[in-house]
Amino acid sequence: MNINAPIAQRLQEISLNIVRALKTAQRDDQILLVAVSKTQTPKAIREAFSAGQTVFGENYLQEALSKQQELTDLKLDWHFIGPIQSNKTSAIAENFSWVHGVDRFKIAQRLSTGRPDHLPTLNICIQINVSDEASKSGVRLQDALALAIEIKQLPHLKLRGLMTIPAPVTDKMIQHTQFKALKDCYVNLNNHGLMLDTLSMGMSDDYLIAIAEGATIVRVGSAIFGARN
Predict the structure, then answer these.
(1) What is the domain range of residue 137?
(2) pLDDT tens-digit profile of 74-84?
(3) Considering the domain boundaries, does residue 85 fall inside one?
(4) Does pTM surpass 0.90?
(5) CATH number, domain with residue 206
(6) Of all helices (H) and strands (E), which one includes residue 78?
(7) 171-177 contacts: CB < 8 A, separation 24 or more?
């Protein structure tokens, strides 16, 4: 991909890559592309919107709220994908339609309490630490079922699925293995009646492998916007 190409051209290339990856995987469903716009300017988001992109992911709450305020004239769908601090849950629950990084019941409870009654249910993905990295957020694979059952009971939330940020490796076999671990966990939870429909996995460097292993949402930043500021 040409890193100097306009955002519209990059989005078009990514869309074509996704179509090809689905065909190769013999899948007839669709992929939701979340454009990860953390550290990017409102101008860049407007450029992506003009090219047809409406779903954006943010990691930092104050930065995201500032952009949302500046872009109120656009019909955008905002996903929160960063680590969640307890004192930020109300603002997240009020200003986003999806939260991808829930790994504690306490956080889910606070999001449920903070979700205003007039808004639709907040879509939730549980973050799984598939590579068991001590420095990384996410619940362990073996603890996912218990957390999912707890979250499923909360009002104002809809548990949609699982999310992961695997260890950054270049070995494609390891990448496949990490994404497959999340897919296996997803299947196990559905076998227990959780009725999940979402696998949020894959970023700029590995989203095609994630699609091969069953991703339904990919979170792509630098491949759209270029290197982060």
Answers:
(1) 7-225
(2) 999 999 998 89
(3) yes
(4) yes
(5) 3.20.20.10
(6) strand 77-80
(7) 172/209, 175/206, 175/209, 176/209, 176/212, 176/213
